[in-house]
Amino acid sequence: MARTEYTIDYRSVVHRPRQTEKKATPMAKQATDTANQIVTPVATCAPYHYPRRILLAVAGLSPQILTETLYALAVATAPPFVPTAIRLITTAEGAERARLSLLSDDPGWFARLCRDYQLPPIDFGPHAIQILSDAAGRPLADIRDLADNACVADQITETIRALTSDPSCALHVSLAGGRKTMGYYAGYALSLYGRAQDRLSHVLVTEPFEQSWNFFYPTPYPRVIETRDNKLADSQRAQVTLAEVPFVRLRAGVVPERLLNGGASFGETIAAAQRALEPPEVVIDLDNRRLQAAGESIALAPAALAFYALMARRRHMGLHAARWNSDGLAAQYLHEYQLIVGSACGDYERAETALANGMSADDFDYRRSRANKALTEALGAVLAKPYLIHADGRRPNTRYGLRLQPEAIRFR
Q1: Position 139 in a domain
Q2: In the Cβ-directed half-sphere of 234, how many Cα atoms lie within 13 Å?
Q3: Is the pTM of this model over 0.85?
């Protein structure tokens, strides 16, 4: 059978939209609508109900912030958030101070706190202290230059990404210690990756106990210590207050799925999030069988890409949404498929034969769902929404098409 070369004039085989149809939403409003959907709502399920509860602290040379935060969460807060595990991110010197002051037999302030307030077993030891490293993998004694700063950002971001990947875990991040940039990166990473059950906080310690090396938490019995100004004070009278820090949860709306799986630097994650906030635009690259959407390059199988290109071209030309039996739909699909695989390809010949009598409803639904699935898997449900093929109207007269503005669709 001689094969037909499809060079389709879409307007010759489909009807123009009626003048009574609703006007397209401007791109600016579409961008605003997208931005309004990116914030993850805070669920009512309380963090202390989760079976795995992790306290993550960033610290410099003051390991006291860990016991102060643990006391505030597990003792001074009602209902208490008692971690099942603690993780500490710090420098090489900070790690040594934490080992000597918190985990040694004497003074062993972590174990003493747990005994004093009869806390259940908490997984925390030398294995739980993450020492920041430079680009060569050497432990950082301090954050001294821009290269060190970038390494610290990447490591804190990756740790928070990994901890938030467990749906059975509630993460509490403390900003009380370390350099200001460490707290900034921890807070920003939690904003990017945090879920409804995750929290961010700082601890407030009353005078004269704040920044006193001898103070680790308010003891349930009198204990006289020397404060930083060489005065004496009873640690039993100290007050430690948890100050929860609100943050915007952007995870579902601006972080593509591939970044949720790891491997991206802090800078790459921020860049991807920034692109997601821009007005939606899709670039269809038939030669390389990919879409560019929300700053991501998404590979599609030829059949799914051809169907998406068909819908995009109709929208780009201002044509109405389509049904499986719309005039010329099979010919339009074959035109896009031919541009992708070539007319000499066996797959093209089989598609041409299968569609000789038009596209069935099952074929239409299958190709539409495959295209939407590829976008959703690559971007996540919220980020993918502006790019999906949407239903319009009620059954049995439902039509399908893109809701992107025509000027937001480009072919390469």
Answers
A1: yes
A2: 5
A3: no
Identify the three-state secondary structure at position 410. Answer: strand
326 with 353, same domain: the answer is yes
Cα–Cα dist 57/69, whole Å: 9
Q: What is the pLDDT of residues 113-124, one digit of tens each?
A: 999 999 999 999
End-of-domain residue from the set 221, 236, 269:
269
Q: Answer with the one of 221, 246, 269 that is the final residue of a domain.
A: 269
Task: Tell me the C-alpha distance between 186 and 90, whole Å.
Answer: 12
Beta strand pairing call for 389-392 and 399-402: antiparallel
Query: Computed over its alpha carbons, how large is the radius of gyration of the chain?
Result: 29
Residues 312 and 245 in one domain: no
Strands (E), 22-158: 52-58, 85-90, 129-131
The residue with tokens 């299968």 is: 354
Could you identify the residue written with the tokens 């390494």? 151
pLDDT in tens, 340-381: 999 888 999 999 999 999 999 999 999 999 999 999 988 888
Same domain, 253 and 316: no
| Residue ranges making up the domain that contains 167 | 47-269
